[in-house]
Amino acid sequence: MKKYTPFLALLCLTSFYACDNFLELEPHSQGIAIENSDADSIYFKSASELESALAGAYGDFKNEYFQLDYFVNGDAQSDDAYAGGDNPDNFQIDDYQLDAVNRNVSRDWAYLYSTIGKVNNIINNARAVNDPELTPARLEEIIGEASFIRAFMYFQLVQLWGDVPLQLKEVTTISAEKLDEIYAQIFPARSPKEEVYTQIIADLETALPRVRATAPHKGFATTGAVNAVLAKVYAAQEPHDWAKVNQYCDAVISGGYALLPEFDQLWDNAMKNSAESIFEINYSGGSTDGNWGVNIFRGVDWKKFNLPSNDLIAAFDAENDLIRKNASIIFEDVSGLWSDPHYPQTHYPFINKWRNFGGDGAQNYIFIRLADILLLKAEALNESGDVNGAAAIVNQIRERVNLNPTTANSQAAMRLAIEKERRLELAYEGVRWYDLKRTGRAIEVMSATKGADGNPIGYALTTERLLWPIPQAELDKNANLTQNAGY
């Protein structure tokens, strides 16, 4: 595919627009806002404008990435779900046959960088707001919340693509004198994933002392949410820092959260923003604030995405884990509606955790909860040699669903026990694929994944396919971008 030369494009920009003209250019791939500072150097003129910008960034947690693709990427890419539905782009994700023109790949890149562009504007311009309505305390909170959002988005990017461009500033002026600087900002190269993780941690460390301890609901950045993401980041980056994982897990655990008495209470929609929830996207329902994503995963009006896998169902059955199985998966009769090679029409499974489908759309999504962090702490303890401490936490999780204590009594056995417990506890919450990747188990596990007949399905997962391709559209626009190996 042909590429145009970014240098020529930049020269066109600098020659076409006079320096005293206002220019706003927002490439969707990077979310960069470009404006002429001679026109007006104040980006936000009031506290209300700044608050609106932050609300817009939070609103992106309700876009297509987080309503749908977050779960396709985390579950259909793993052994917990088949792609389901009839979308060829999702089939490519499920079968590790992605290419650089896959529409999910392109849109997810664009969604994440668009949000990063929004919070960059907040982080870089909030301190210039001169409005008595903006108190110093609230200013710091806003910067902290925006930093959390940026870290959250980059954590998605680095896990999917590895090395990605670090976009931290918006271009404010275009001039020949600043050509080199502008060029690097508009057409950035990929930063090594180690640098991306360093920036994620820096943003979370900026957020931690600034965000509130509690908020009106769990959809805001709080100290608990920041600590939880820090624990996840230190567990995901290489090398893993288990001491840091343990530190931030402890900070969450001591933050007033508690497991709900019954597992199903998490999903019955009667206890939203519960004591177990740490970060939860809230929907009020209706045409303006309805969660349409749940309709993609359950219902008999058309064939749904993220079809529960035979392998996961077998894992529930092998553990006699009826409570979590029934809360996570429901079987219905779809006779005469559609057929599928994985299941008979009379006993067809759907995801059951997101239950408010086909209604008003007032279904919240829980992105982080205490059980996840407890099991992450168990992993940190086990990797540090405290097998008994890890077992105590695993047994706490198992006790809630009436299962016997784990029999794992060595570090190696405990690794597998924690992996299994996370799978059964967190099924369809978008984490399984990333768990398999960060533990180095993805290829082994996916190669052994079994179908309805009890035989391996034959997934052709390779090391190169652990990362996604850089979207071709981005390569065409930016000659400084390079493609991931194998694409």
Walk me through the structure.
The protein has 487 residues and is mostly helical. Helix content is 47%, strand content 5%. The chain has a domain of 81 residues. Helix 6 runs antiparallel to helix 8. A two-stranded antiparallel ribbon has the order 1-3. The chain contains 19 helices and six strands.
* Category by helix and strand content: mainly alpha
First-to-last CA distance: 14 Å
- Main sheet: strands, sense, barrel: 2 strands, antiparallel
Give a count of the beta strands, DSSP E runs of length 2 or more. 6
Strand composition percent: 5-15%
Based on the model shown, name its key terms.
487 residues, mainly alpha, two-stranded antiparallel ribbon, two-stranded antiparallel sheet, 19 helices, disordered N terminus
Write the layout of secondary structure elements.
Layout: H1 6-16, H2 47-59, H3 64-76, E1 81-84, H4 88-95, H5 103-125, H6 136-161, H7 179-186, H8 193-207, H9 223-236, H10 242-253, E2 277-281, H11 294-297, E3 305-308, H12 310-318, H13 322-328, E4 329-332, E5 348-351, E6 365-369, H14 370-383, H15 387-400, H16 411-426, H17 432-438, H18 442-448, H19 472-477
Antiparallel strand pairs: 1-3, 2-6, 4-5
Brief overview:
This protein is mainly α and about 475 residues long. The chain has a domain at about 285-365. About 45% of the residues lie in helices and about 5% in strands.
